């Protein structure tokens, strides 16, 4: 089976620092992922509902709701609890 026929997994990357995102995206873009990016926890929750990513890479130190609170909220939602 050709890999081009396989669906890419969606990975949501959440970080408030653009320089961190630049490094992550440069590396992950070469992998077999469709990437989505959120700059804060609120946007991560919103995008998770819309995109249903298979995995979430989440920074813990962010302004607003931090990564721990974002994770807690995602885990209480039926749609995102297993991400």
TrEMBL record:
GO biological process, alphabetically ordered: phosphorelay signal transduction system
Indicate the segments forming the Response regulatory domain, all copies.
10-83
Pfam families with a match to the protein in the record:
Response_reg
Question: Which Gene3D superfamilies does this entry report, sorted A to Z?
Answer: 3.40.50.2300
Taxonomic superkingdom: Bacteria
Which InterPro entries does this entry report, sorted A to Z? Bact_response_regulator (IPR050595), CheY-like_superfamily (IPR011006), Sig_transdc_resp-reg_receiver (IPR001789)
Answer yes or no on keyword Phosphoprotein: yes
Q: Which UniProt keywords apply?
A: Phosphoprotein
Q: Tell me yes or no: is Electron transport among this UniProt entry's keywords.
A: no
Residue positions where 4-aspartylphosphate is found in the record: 59
What's this protein's name?
Answer: Response regulatory domain-containing protein
Origin species, per record, is Candidatus Thiomargarita nelsonii
């Amino acid at each position: 089976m050709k890999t081009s026929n396989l669906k890419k997994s969606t990975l949501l990357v959440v970080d408030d620092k653009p320089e961190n995102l630049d490094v992550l995206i440069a590396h992950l873009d070469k992998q077999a992922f469709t990437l989505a990016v959120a700059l804060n926890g609120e946007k991560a929750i919103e995008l998770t509902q819309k995109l249903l990513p298979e995995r979430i890479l989440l920074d813990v130190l962010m302004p607003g709701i931090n990564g721990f609170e974002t994770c807690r909220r995602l885990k209480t939602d039926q749609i995102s609890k297993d991400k």
